[in-house]
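As a warm-up, study this chain.
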Amino acid sequence: MNWLNSEAFVLFDQHIIWSDMIGNILGLIALGLGWRRSLMTWPVQFLSGLVLFTAFYGHLAGSAGKQVVVMVVALYGWWQWQRGRGRADDGRITVRFAGWRERGAMLAAAAAGTVAVALLFKAYPSLSWDPWPDAYIFVGTIVAMYAQAKGMVEFWIAWLLVDVVGVPLNFANGYAFSGFVYVIYGALVLWGLRDWWLRSRRDPRPTLEGAPA
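Now compare it with the structure written out below.
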């Protein structure tokens, strides 16, 4: 597997490694499948996390750890979408806007999680070169994937907020392909946000378990 961490090519004076390129292409495909509300988005996200884990393991332990969490959340997302499949008119999951309590809980979790992870990275400098932005991306990615698993339109907004920091951080850390892909993510996220936003107005709202019929 050593070839995964070898150089694939040079683009604009940036050295592109195979694992960085393959993992992020898979991530891009997973985002597109998420836009289409395809259940396959989750195994592709899991595979992306596995490949990127090999890219970071050994020299960016914090980023490698993030990919482990991404794989766990991908399994959770698969389980959630399996349960929710068939509720929309087209046989796929129903998308919706989060309630205010859900938004508040996600914002609080993102803020507290970012602080906690950043302090961990600062206490153990070998885990990250840039503790605060790396923690922000780490936690923001998990929050975004959680919102996606729940079929929340806010999933796309969370990804946009991750992109704002992710693009410059990846270039600064030498992961140029990740930076380029995050730029493409931004465009795809805007299209996905529009699609889910409009769809949330058309799909029937899901019935809560235990609620009266």
